[in-house]
Amino acid sequence: MNNQVSIFENDDKIAKSIERIKFASNMATKQGLGALYVAFSGGKDSVCMAELCKMAGVPYELHYNITTIDPPEVMQFMRENYPDLKWHLPEQSMMELIIEKHMPPTRIARFCCAELKEMGGQGRMCLTGVRWAESVRRKNTRKPFEQFSSERMLFNDNDDERRQFEHCALKGKFVVNPIIDWTDDDVWEFIHSRKLPYCKLYDMGFKRIGCIGCPNATLKYRELQFARYPKMKELYIRTFDKMLKDMPVDTNRTWKNGEDVFNWWLYGSNKIDKNQLCFDEIK
Fold this sequence. Notes:
CATH class of the largest domain: Alpha Beta
CATH superfamily of the largest domain: HUPs
Number of helices: 11
Strand order of the largest sheet: 3-2-1-4-7-5-6
Low-confidence stretches: 1-10, 150-156, 160-164, 166-170, 271-283
Strand content: 5-15%
Number of domains: 2
Order of helices and strands: HEHEHEHHEHEEHEHHHH
Largest sheet: 7 strands, mixed
Shape: globular
Number of strands: 7
């Protein structure tokens, strides 16, 4: 053991996360919801979640919703390291959704997440690797304990609100985010200290390994993805071509082909990533 001071030593985030997991498991048991439903993506946060559930000693299942635009290295990593992972195919692929909706996904029209990633876990106690450090929006809106139903209710992490979470009617999807207060450094120290496997893309310049082409990612990251996966770029362009053929005639539309759509989708109307906000801007 070296003399380096652990970043977990003072606030004991690991113990707090395990406590949240045990609390969620007790809730699931009381309500007859079965094992914890762990939303697994193959990323670094999911790796931490799986290990924490094992450390907590509670019944849990790892579930992965296939998006059809997943990096192949991530798929291989999960197959090799998580043999008990439950894989779920979507009703439609990303490309089918684009053609049907007559638009690519954008930052304010993220139909992909709703239909490809978030459809599982209804009526279950779900665990995710959501963290505040990932974005300002998550810092402002997400909580350690949450309920999603016809009305979205959010709860904090103090005792009174835990009791409220425990006694509310269990309808819809209940979500616990055990590592919500972890930083990136926390995540990586935990992985290295526990000698956990992780996807090799992280050692190749990728700071996140989500869906290929995700509009929520930075321009630099999306360019890095499409440089590594040129066939996926070609698939998107072919899909945009089909999308245009399937769309009603619009005399104001300036796109001539799928490549035009792809360039707008990647760069925005002024080749500034932040301008890629909504489909109508191209009109």
